[in-house]
Amino acid sequence: MSDDFLQGMALASAERLSEARATADLITLERRAAEHKAPPPLRLSATGFDLIAELKKRSPAAGQLATTAVSPAAQAGKYVAAGAAAISVLTEPQRFSGSLEDLQQVVAGTESIPVMRKDFLVDPYQIVEARAAGAGGVLLIAAILEPSLLRDMLQTAFELGMFVLVEAFDEADLLRCVPVMADRLPAINNDGSCRMLLGVNCRNLRTLAVEFTRFMALAGQLPDTIPWVAESGVDTPYKAGQVASAGYRLALVGTALMRSDGPQHAAQALLQAGRDARAC
Hints:
Elements: H1 5-23, H2 26-34, E1 42-43, E2 50-55, E3 58-59, E4 63-64, H3 72-82, E5 86-90, H4 100-108, E6 115-118, H5 124-132, E7 137-141, H6 147-159, E8 163-168, H7 171-182, E9 193-194, E10 196-201, H8 214-219, E11 228-231, H9 237-245, E12 250-253, H10 255-259, H11 263-279
Parallel strand pairs: 2-5, 2-12, 5-6, 6-7, 7-8, 8-10, 10-11, 11-12
Antiparallel strand pairs: 1-9, 3-4
Helix pairs in contact: 2-5, 3-4, 3-11, 6-7, 9-11
């Protein structure tokens, strides 16, 4: 695998893509996707701060986060009870111990909010694959997608009624993805549901180092037409308040919730801190 973690994950994703295509062609997959009822829409609260709570069994940076005894559906239920706007499920198998089966289990037990597939997706096929598993949203990483491919993948997701979180790490990523996203505005539909988010990941996916100050450093370069998501590094209510004060509308939190003995309470504390900060 490449010494560049992100590139290694993209190459591994491409290999899984080839294996999946050998099992089911795109037409078959589209038929499976069409069998699902429409996913719940992503709705942001009027409080100005929301949470995407993540199911993640393992982290390359933090190691094992959950034992086999942890039920994906039960963990997701705690997130729903806490008031999360969406649930993210890691489906990458090699370094995160995830699977599409985990996603399916969460979808089966979650009806009120959308479930997002988080992975290193490199082709529109994988978005259809996510919808066929019941997902209502996907993560797309700007650094591994050429603008033309990102455009195609956004279009695929929107045609399937899914929301998209586009992830950037630095100024170069923003230059790649923001013009493409601007062509797909509005981010909020007429019915108030959200179809497009712009995330800043403060974890460098090439080195895995966390740089929390990156949230604040990039805030001035983020468009106000798309809700911002703070990804990685938000592991305390204080930090949730910091990113909310900087203008982020959501935080995506996984490790802190997976490690918590009381994930519902932990998620509620993060939400309250962010909403208190936005109210100031």
